[in-house]
């Protein structure tokens, strides 16, 4: 089983250590409420504030969105599409929730491994009845 990293493991480190963790950590942005069986958007950005290298030998390869142990979706990244300079890659997932969600994003750096976001809880409710 691969090791799994998250920002919180490095939060008490030096500024250099925190910058290393920041540029590797996926961050989820979405509403905390969703309507059942209606499209729901979730944005995932790698890095809170710090850009990650995007070199041939050091770059991100994929971003996944999970609901607990269920994979919702995955984006494979083509490195060359994001230039050769450090970058904060972001993507948006749109899917149809049926039950409340405990979302986690995972992202894989080919040099520094697999990184996990903080968990985000989304309450899914039925739409009000229409008259
Ligand atoms: Fe890296």
Topology:
Elements: E1 4-6, H1 15-24, E2 26-29, E3 33-35, E4 40-46, E5 60-67, E6 70-76, E7 90-95, E8 101-109, E9 113-116, E10 120-125
Parallel strand pairs: 1-9, 3-10
Antiparallel strand pairs: 2-4, 4-7, 5-6, 5-8, 8-9, 8-10
Structure description:
It is built from one helix and ten strands, in the order βαβββββββββ. It starts with a strand and ends in a 6-residue tail after the last strand. The model has no long low-confidence stretch (mean pLDDT 96). It has one helix at 15-24; strands at 4-6, 26-29, 33-35, 40-46, 60-67, 70-76, 90-95, 101-109, 113-116, 120-125. It has a single domain (4-125), classed as Immunoglobulin-like. It has 131 residues and is mainly beta. 8% of the residues lie in helices and 44% in strands. The relative contact order is 0.28. It is globular and about 55 Å long. The strands form two sheets. Strands 1, 3, 5, 6, 8, 9 and 10 form a seven-stranded mixed β-sheet that branches. It has a three-stranded antiparallel β-sheet with strand order 2-4-7. Residues 24, 52, 58, 109, 111-112 line the site of fe (ii) ion (FE2).
């Amino acid at each position: 089983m691969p090791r799994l990293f998250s920002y919180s493991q490095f939060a008490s480190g030096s500024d250099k250590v925190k910058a290393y963790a920041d540029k590797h950590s996926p961050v989820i942005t979405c509403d905390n409420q969703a309507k059942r069986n209606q499209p729901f958007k979730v944005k995932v950005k790698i890095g809170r504030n710090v850009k990650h290298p995007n070199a041939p030998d050091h770059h991100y390869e994929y971003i996944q969105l999970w609901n607990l142990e269920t994979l919702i979706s995955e984006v494979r990244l083509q490195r060359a599409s994001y230039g050769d300079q450090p970058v904060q890659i972001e993507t948006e997932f749109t899917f149809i929730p049926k039950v409340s969600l405990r979302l986690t994003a995972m992202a894989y750096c080919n040099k520094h491994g697999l990184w996990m976001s903080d968990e985000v809880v989304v309450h899914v409710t039925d739409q009000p009845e229409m008259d």
